[in-house]
Amino acid sequence: FLVGLVALEGKQRRVAHEAFKSVVRLDKDHAAAWAHIANLCIAEGRIDATELALREIRRIRPTDPAVIELTGTVLNKMGEFETAEAFFHKAHQLAPEHPSAIMNLANARVALGKIDDAVPLFRQAIEIEPRGAQCHWGLANAVKAVTAEHIDEMQTLLDADTHSLRQKSFLYDAVGKESEDLRDWPTAISAFIKGASARRSTVEFNEADEIALYETIKDIFTSDWLSRQPPGIADPSPIFVLGQPRTGTTLIERIITSHSQVHSAGELQQFGLAIRRATRHSDPKRFTKTLFENAAEIDPAIIGQLYIKSTAKQRSKNTFFVDKLPLNYLNIPLILAALPKAKIVHLVRGPMDACFASFKQLFADAYLHSYDQGEMARHHARYRDLMDHFRREFPGRFIDISYEATASDLEPNARSLIDKLGLDWEDACLNFHQSSSGIATASSVQVREPAHTRSIGRWRNYQKELQPMITTLEKMGVPLD
Fold this sequence. Notes:
Blueprint: H1 2-9, H2 13-26, H3 31-43, H4 47-60, H5 65-77, H6 81-94, H7 99-111, H8 115-128, H9 133-142, H10 149-160, H11 165-181, H12 185-200, H13 207-220, H14 223-227, E1 238-242, H15 249-257, E2 262-264, H16 270-279, H17 289-295, H18 300-310, E3 320-323, H19 332-338, E4 343-348, H20 351-359, H21 373-393, E5 399-402, H22 403-408, H23 410-420, H24 467-475
Parallel strand pairs: 1-3, 1-4, 2-3, 4-5
């Protein structure tokens, strides 16, 4: 078991998996090992293996709050938000003074739209651990600030300079968010820039590798390539909603999944994992030039079969389901080949709004380009160039929808989208904000309210401080709006 924990810390996932499997062979009632196996399997998109490990945990009925909490984390990744909340609640009952148990329960309630239940938990976590950066960040993102009291509290922590750079990034981002709530633009942008800088210093982003990746995709995936592919899987049930992060993908997903025939499956990693499994790709990086070179030679039906099989338990009984992973825009040609009857919806948003929204957002382990203004702008230019390539090579094969147009005039744009998806109109699609289903994204609070235009053009409040981003976009021929 200790070998497994050390391997996890060293990011040696295969070694960890083998170690934990050895543990349960020696002791089939070792709930902690089963929980780690479940967590490793869900990260690899192995749903059946995850379910098996979860069944063993339920059989054992563990009482260790850490095991129960980890089980809740796995359920959360599977999109089973209500069940995850129940596990986090049990962990909190068993360890009422443990900040991580409180935070997980609070975050689960935010995902389920139970904001009023989540806020006291964030405050409780802060009371127990006043220096807890993520506790402060969670509170800041759950509610709109009406006074500067919490900002002052977080600024005191930052002035003490006792947090790691990663922790500082959470505190700065929270200060920036609450300052925006109060329309204190100078304090907000100062915090966002400091937070992004702190986060950038903790991640590795290789821009040359990304350039090579995008050029490879453009070179390989053309209309000629697609015409040579054998038939994929003729399953019409997937609807992919994709694009850059923070461009309205959650809003559009909620509109579509408010339809009675469509299920929200969340941000699934399964298509990318199906490509990796089909190509036997073992590089820990999610996307590489070699991955796409190898994927272009694989029978697309294999990728389609793996995807459909691995999403079976997350698709409910509805006729259609939405996979809302923004990064799937890189996979558009492979989706067209592997699942030719799937629908693809691509979000379009003004470049500066899109770039600034990502720059000021803390992500987990994705979008490493977003913490430097120049890198963010250059990435966005590459993305736009790639999407232009896809439009030329695969005309009419995906739906472009404007975030600004939809947020400004919801009904006609929602009706047009539902029609293009081949669905009959339902008025529920206009009342997406009333849905009680879970949302595990950065937009989980925003989409609990009707569509609004507050974030359109917000970057203009910070034109002076965002000059590096503006100049780079202009130099690369990208319009700001």
